[in-house]
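In this section we walk through a basic example: taking a raw amino acid sequence and producing a predicted 3D structure, encoded as C-alpha coordinates. The instruction is simple. Fold the sequence below.
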Amino acid sequence: MADFYSDMATVALDLIGQYGQTVTLQRTAAGEYDPETGTVSDGTAEEQPASGVLLDYTGQEFLTNTQIQQGDKKLKIAAKGLEWTPEIANKVAIQGKAYSVINLNEINPAGTPLVYELQVRA
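The resulting C-alpha coordinate sequence is shown next.
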Protein backbone atom coordinates (compact mmCIF):
# COMPACT_ATOMS: atom_id res chain seq x y z
CA MET A 1 0.00 0.00 0.00
CA ALA A 2 2.92 2.35 0.72
CA ASP A 3 4.07 1.95 -2.90
CA PHE A 4 0.64 3.05 -4.10
CA TYR A 5 0.76 6.29 -2.08
CA SER A 6 4.35 6.91 -3.08
CA ASP A 7 3.22 6.64 -6.70
CA MET A 8 0.34 9.05 -5.94
CA ALA A 9 2.82 11.54 -4.46
CA THR A 10 4.74 11.37 -7.74
CA VAL A 11 1.54 11.89 -9.73
CA ALA A 12 0.63 14.92 -7.56
CA LEU A 13 4.11 16.39 -8.11
CA ASP A 14 3.88 15.82 -11.88
CA LEU A 15 0.40 17.35 -12.22
CA ILE A 16 1.07 20.35 -10.00
CA GLY A 17 4.40 20.88 -11.75
CA GLN A 18 2.71 20.72 -15.15
CA TYR A 19 -0.30 22.92 -14.38
CA GLY A 20 1.00 25.04 -11.51
CA GLN A 21 3.99 27.27 -10.96
CA THR A 22 7.19 27.37 -8.96
CA VAL A 23 6.82 29.04 -5.57
CA THR A 24 9.48 29.68 -2.94
CA LEU A 25 8.93 28.61 0.66
CA GLN A 26 10.87 30.70 3.18
CA ARG A 27 11.56 30.15 6.85
CA THR A 28 13.96 31.41 9.48
CA ALA A 29 15.69 28.73 11.53
CA ALA A 30 16.08 29.72 15.16
CA GLY A 31 19.41 31.09 16.32
CA GLU A 32 21.57 29.34 18.88
CA TYR A 33 21.77 30.32 22.53
CA ASP A 34 25.23 31.26 23.81
CA PRO A 35 25.35 30.57 27.57
CA GLU A 36 28.55 32.61 28.01
CA THR A 37 27.02 35.83 26.74
CA GLY A 38 23.38 35.02 27.48
CA THR A 39 22.35 35.97 23.95
CA VAL A 40 20.73 34.22 21.02
CA SER A 41 22.34 34.54 17.59
CA ASP A 42 20.29 35.70 14.63
CA GLY A 43 18.33 33.01 12.85
CA THR A 44 19.32 31.66 9.46
CA ALA A 45 17.03 32.26 6.49
CA GLU A 46 16.23 29.16 4.45
CA GLU A 47 14.44 28.88 1.12
CA GLN A 48 13.24 26.00 -1.00
CA PRO A 49 11.40 25.87 -4.31
CA ALA A 50 8.11 24.00 -4.54
CA SER A 51 5.51 23.30 -7.21
CA GLY A 52 2.21 24.96 -6.35
CA VAL A 53 -1.22 25.97 -7.56
CA LEU A 54 -2.60 29.28 -6.24
CA LEU A 55 -6.39 29.42 -5.96
CA ASP A 56 -9.08 31.76 -4.66
CA TYR A 57 -11.42 30.60 -1.91
CA THR A 58 -15.01 29.95 -2.95
CA GLY A 59 -18.02 31.71 -1.46
CA GLN A 60 -19.00 28.52 0.33
CA GLU A 61 -15.59 28.32 1.99
CA PHE A 62 -16.01 31.90 3.25
CA LEU A 63 -19.36 30.93 4.79
CA THR A 64 -18.09 27.81 6.55
CA ASN A 65 -14.65 28.98 7.74
CA THR A 66 -14.46 32.16 9.82
CA GLN A 67 -10.63 32.24 9.65
CA ILE A 68 -10.66 33.14 5.95
CA GLN A 69 -10.36 36.86 5.26
CA GLN A 70 -10.94 38.77 2.06
CA GLY A 71 -7.82 38.47 -0.08
CA ASP A 72 -6.64 35.16 1.40
CA LYS A 73 -5.55 32.54 -1.12
CA LYS A 74 -5.37 28.76 -1.10
CA LEU A 75 -2.00 27.34 -2.16
CA LYS A 76 -1.69 23.63 -2.89
CA ILE A 77 1.88 22.39 -3.09
CA ALA A 78 3.24 18.95 -3.89
CA ALA A 79 4.80 17.28 -0.86
CA LYS A 80 7.21 15.02 -2.71
CA GLY A 81 10.76 16.33 -2.93
CA LEU A 82 10.47 18.98 -0.22
CA GLU A 83 13.50 19.24 2.07
CA TRP A 84 11.32 20.49 4.94
CA THR A 85 7.60 20.73 5.44
CA PRO A 86 5.84 24.09 5.50
CA GLU A 87 4.67 25.45 8.85
CA ILE A 88 2.45 28.25 10.07
CA ALA A 89 4.31 31.60 10.01
CA ASN A 90 6.53 30.56 7.08
CA LYS A 91 6.57 32.89 4.11
CA VAL A 92 5.87 32.08 0.47
CA ALA A 93 7.01 34.08 -2.55
CA ILE A 94 4.63 33.73 -5.49
CA GLN A 95 5.11 35.76 -8.68
CA GLY A 96 7.12 38.37 -6.80
CA LYS A 97 4.54 38.79 -4.03
CA ALA A 98 5.14 37.76 -0.41
CA TYR A 99 2.52 35.80 1.53
CA SER A 100 2.43 34.50 5.11
CA VAL A 101 1.21 30.99 5.87
CA ILE A 102 -1.83 31.39 8.14
CA ASN A 103 -3.09 27.81 8.24
CA LEU A 104 -2.16 24.50 6.66
CA ASN A 105 -3.57 21.08 6.06
CA GLU A 106 -1.55 18.01 5.07
CA ILE A 107 -3.18 15.48 2.74
CA ASN A 108 -1.52 12.39 4.17
CA PRO A 109 -3.25 9.05 3.57
CA ALA A 110 -1.52 6.09 5.21
CA GLY A 111 1.41 8.22 6.43
CA THR A 112 2.59 9.42 3.01
CA PRO A 113 2.27 13.19 2.48
CA LEU A 114 0.87 13.93 -0.99
CA VAL A 115 -0.12 17.60 -0.94
CA TYR A 116 -0.01 20.51 1.51
CA GLU A 117 -2.90 22.94 1.36
CA LEU A 118 -1.85 26.33 2.75
CA GLN A 119 -3.98 29.34 3.57
CA VAL A 120 -1.80 32.30 2.66
CA ARG A 121 -2.27 36.02 3.27
CA ALA A 122 -0.48 38.96 1.66
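Looking at the output, two observations stand out. The chain has a mean pLDDT of 90. The chain has one domain: 2-121. In the next section we compare this with other chains.
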